[in-house]
């Protein structure tokens, strides 16, 4: 077979696989939640029912990779390495942070799958989990990503790149950043289930059970009234990032339903399924969009009790299997593109 013909056949094979994935995703519908494979799903929120292989560097659900460490704890994994050009910052000073993800061949990765409307999601938190940023860097060419970042206070920070290289599985790599100066450590985190942001009150309901999928519901209200017209953000009515206090493990969370599926209300409740790997304290950051602006509400929840035994039922609704893992998400049909938010929103959260 000559080369063009081989490429053609390969492309055709891909098209079949992708087509199958789309078909599966559609047929299963938004109610589908891959509960049996959930544990292998990593940390990024994914609209349910999409053939989402899971973000964050866990094994493919289909290959039943052994339970590995949570995502985000490594700077290099599966041959991919996060390489920031800068790790030293001056507090309060906006800096153009440039970085690459180098692939197994040692070169910067230039081809990415789109996940939740972006090729790469970039999360920056302070190590004490008081500061949270969810950013979308721009491609500066040749595999270089560029993002304007201000670290507000002196201290140590963790940056997570959440992406899926073309032809590879989703990964979340983490790298430390630091801002020099007089560092004042924050006190211990106390549980907090109500967040106030910009006149909005967001309350969190539900408990996190180690080792199983736990339903978490966030209710958004403004001036005492439930908000029922939340806007889609990254293909969902909310985007939840969960991090473990102590090591900043980046956890798997995905929303229950998606805009336009005919069953998911645009508030006031936004439901997620979160999987925490252990007992401990977790910080949850909810990005939600209303009135054209994305805001972040933050919570602190303790996960207690013993880990659930193997094979114990999950709280997730049982459903037909979702699309095969490792396949890209279907295009966002019928979901209006949320307005550009200019510079990504950023939140500082006091304890
Ligand atoms: Cu993002």
Regions with little confidence, pLDDT below 50 for 5+ residues: 1-66, 315-343
Chemical compounds bound to the protein: copper (II) ion
Give the strand content: 25-35%
Helix/strand structural class: mainly beta
Mean pLDDT: 78
What share of residues is helical?
under 10%
**Shape verdict:** globular
**How far apart lie the N and C ends?**
63 Å
SSE order in H/E notation? Answer: HEEEEEEEEEEEEEEEEEEEE
How would you characterize the largest beta sheet?
6 strands, mixed
Q: What order do the strands of the largest sheet run in, or round the barrel if closed?
A: 3-10-9-5-6-20
Rg (CA only): 20 Å
User: What is the helix tally?
Assistant: 1
Query: How many strand segments?
Result: 20
Quick gist of this model?
It contains 1 helix and 20 strands. By secondary structure, the protein is mainly β.
What does the model show?
The protein is mostly beta strands. Helices cover 7% and strands 34% of the residues. It has 1 helix and 20 strands. It has one helix at 3-28; strands at residues 76-77, 80-84, 88-89, 95-102, 120-126, 131-135, 138-141, 144-149, 155-163, 171-179, 194-197, 200-205, 213-222, 225-226, 239-244, 252-255, 269-275, 280-290, 293-303, 346-348. The chain has a 6-stranded mixed β-sheet with strand order 3-10-9-5-6-20, with no helix packed on it. Strands 11, 12, 13, 14, 16 and 17 form a 6-stranded antiparallel β-sheet that branches. It is globular. The termini are far apart. The structure holds copper (II) ion. Copper (II) ion binds at residues 118, 121, 134, 136, 234.
